[in-house]
């Protein structure tokens, strides 16, 4: 038996309970978790903004140590440190054939499987976003496991599984920030903090952090922000005032709200680029008129998992970590146990703090 955070149904509170894990079958790996980050996507699963089969063990940003492997697994061995990849590419679908592995049509197929059972009543459990990281141990498909970078503590490496890949990829793959460009980052949570660091690594000349909370300014500046704006109805005007009335070259939206997406777009210069990382609900409708689309010549694009290929990007991120350019600890504002996840969700809703990290 292992302890896990179970979502019994959409809209229900998480239950911290014992679950029974099977031994890994062919092509599977059993992992003892070192840490798991509490991501906004997990919250979106609890409230139905994103949907996966339930009941489920949530958690998709994690790292740990291989306990055992099933038949046919050759790229990791017991004792290896690994990072979980919640969206493994199949390598066969149309998106994968184009090299756009972050859009793989089959990436979340595993979320529909039954991977464990509750110890109290034997009921089936699904693995959230494939990897069920909110548990002391998990069993995952082998393609959901990547070797952890050498020299990076596993508790830090957990953040590489979502927040850092997403923020880094938003800057380097989606927005393609060039040295000397100006950047605004909307939302200073875990992904936003990673995005700020990525913009600094890219050589942005001015990095403006935007958040509803004045208390996050110190966090943002530590991550690389040169300026801080408390979100209001005048945010776009304030950003233009910080950029010689032009607007920034790039805006990255990490919130997923219609008003924030619209403000991010308005904050860019003519010809500017806005990348939307935040996951919003279907009710969040963003509107533009045809004349302004023509006149401003701006680009608005979505960004899934940072448009990243984890197998290629993890080594690059490891290089930045070892060189001191990327500080994973700067993303974390709270270390918690499994039973602290509901409070971490509450803090997210209230706009408090950066990343909460479950440490096992």
Task: Outline the secondary-structure elements.
Blueprint: E1 2-7, E2 15-20, E3 28-38, H1 40-47, E4 56-57, E5 61-69, E6 81-84, H2 94-97, E7 116-118, E8 124-125, E9 137-141, E10 145-147, H3 154-157, H4 163-174, E11 182-186, H5 190-202, E12 206-211, H6 217-223, E13 227-230, H7 235-241, E14 248-253, H8 258-266, E15 268-276, H9 290-296, E16 299-302, H10 310-322, E17 332-336, H11 341-350, E18 355-359
Parallel strand pairs: 11-12, 11-14, 12-13, 14-15, 15-16, 17-18
Antiparallel strand pairs: 1-2, 1-4, 2-7, 3-5, 3-9, 3-18, 5-6, 6-10, 7-8
Helix pairs in contact: 4-5, 4-10
Low-confidence stretches: none
Q: Strand content of the residues, in percent?
A: 25-35%
- Sketch the major β-sheet: 7 strands, mixed
- The number of helical runs is 11
What is the tally of beta strands?
Answer: 18
- Helical content (DSSP H or I, runs of 4+): 25-40%
What is the CA-CA span between the terminal residues? 15 Å
- Give me the strand/helix succession: EEEHEEEHEEEEHHEHEHEHEHEHEHEHE
Mean of the pLDDT scores?
96
Radius of gyration: 20 Å
Shape: globular
Structural class: alpha/beta
Summarize the structure.
By secondary structure, the protein is an alpha/beta fold.
Features:
single chain, 360 residues, alpha/beta, seven-stranded mixed beta sheet, six-stranded parallel beta sheet, 11 helices, 18 strands
């Amino acid at each position: 038996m292992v302890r896990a955070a179970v979502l019994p149904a959409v809209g229900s509170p998480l239950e911290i309970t014992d679950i029974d894990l099977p031994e890994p079958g062919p092509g599977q790996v059993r992992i003892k978790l070192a840490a798991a980050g509490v991501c906004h996507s997990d919250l979106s699963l609890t409230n139905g903004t994103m949907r996966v089969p339930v009941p489920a063990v949530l958690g998709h940003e994690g790292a740990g140590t291989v306990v055992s492997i099933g038949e046919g697994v050759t790229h990791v061995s017991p004792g290896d440190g690994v990072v979980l990849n919640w969206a493994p590419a199949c390598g066969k679908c149309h998106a994968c054939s184009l090299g756009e592995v972050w859009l793989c049509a089959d990436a979340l197929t595993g979320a529909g499987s039954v991977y464990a059972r509750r110890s109290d009543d034997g009921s089936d459990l699904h693995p959230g976003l494939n990897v069920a990281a909110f548990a002391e141990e998990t069993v995952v498909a082998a393609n959901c496991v990547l070797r952890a970078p050498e020299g990076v503590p596993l508790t830090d490496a957990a953040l590489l599984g979502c927040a850092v890949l997403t923020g880094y990829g938003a800057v380097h793959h989606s927005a393609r920030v060039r040295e000397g460009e100006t950047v605004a980052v909307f939302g200073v949570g875990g992904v936003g903090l990673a995005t700020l660091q990525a913009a600094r690594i890219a050589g942005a000349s001015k990095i403006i952090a935007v958040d509803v909370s004045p208390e996050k300014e110190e966090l943002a500046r530590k991550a690389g922000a040169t300026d801080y704006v408390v979100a209001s109805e005048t945010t776009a005007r304030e950003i233009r005032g910080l950029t010689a009335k032009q607007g920034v070259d790039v805006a990255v939206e990490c919130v997923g709200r219609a008003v924030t997406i619209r403000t991010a777009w308005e904050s860019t210069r003519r010809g500017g680029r806005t990348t939307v990382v935040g996951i919003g609900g279907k009710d969040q409708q963003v509107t533009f008129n045809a004349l302004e689309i023509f006149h401003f010549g701006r680009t608005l694009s979505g960004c899934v998992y940072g448009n990243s290929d984890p197998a290629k990007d993890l080594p690059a991120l490891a290089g930045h970590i070892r060189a001191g350019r990327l500080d994973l600890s700067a993303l974390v504002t709270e270390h918690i146990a499994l039973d602290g996840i509901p409070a971490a969700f509450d803090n997210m809703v209230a706009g408090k703090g950066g990343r909460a990290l479950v440490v096992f």
